[in-house]
């Protein structure tokens, strides 16, 4: 039961971040198309290239770091639920292949 909830929450997290990234990227591309390439350059580099280098890639890194953080938080909640259930049944975390020992 808990594993299904974890899978659903991980899928929802991934979907939200993917949709957010796609929307941000589409808005960024639309913004780039509004800037003409002729005449706009910094140190000989077109502004569209600079926006790509310092706009999309940092966005990608930020979204991916936030997605990993959210996924880790989901897994930590799952572990706490499973650990709480085991403690309620009289199991403690311990060595062995069974995952715990009955107290």
From TrEMBL:
Keyword Transmembrane attached: yes
Top-level taxonomic group: Bacteria
Residue intervals passing through the bilayer: 12-35, 47-68
Keywords in alphabetical order: Membrane, Transmembrane, Transmembrane helix
Record-given protein name: DUF485 domain-containing protein
